[in-house]
Amino acid sequence: MAARTLPVIDRDNQAYWTWGGEGKLAIHRCADCEYFVHPPVPFCPRCESRDVAPQAVSGRGRVVTFTINHKAWVPDLADPYVLALVAIEEQDDVRIPCNIVDCAPDAVDFNMEVEVVFEPVEDLWIPLFRPVTA
Amino acid sequence: MTLFAEKDTAITGVGMSDVSRGATQSALALTLDAALEAIADAGLTRADIDGIATWPGEKADGSGFSPVGCAALQDALRLEVGWYGGGGEAPGQYGAVFNAIGAIAAGLCRNILIFRTMYEATARKTAYANSLLREGQRQAGPFSWYAPYYTYAAALQQALFFNLYVHKSGIRPEQVGQIAVNQRRNAALNPKAIYKTPMSIDDYLASPIIATPLRLYDCDVPIDGAAAIVVSRMDVARTLRNPPIRIEAIGSSMRYRNSWTQLDALDTQAQPKVAEMMWSRTDLKPADVDIAQLYDGFSFHTINWLENFGFCERYGAKDFIEGGKRIALDGELPVNTGGGAMSGGRLHAYGAVHEACTQLWGRAGARQVKGDPQVCATSTSGGPLAGAMLLVRD
Question: To the nearest whole angstrom, how far is the Cα of B42 from the nearest Cα of chain A?
Answer without folding.
Answer: 43
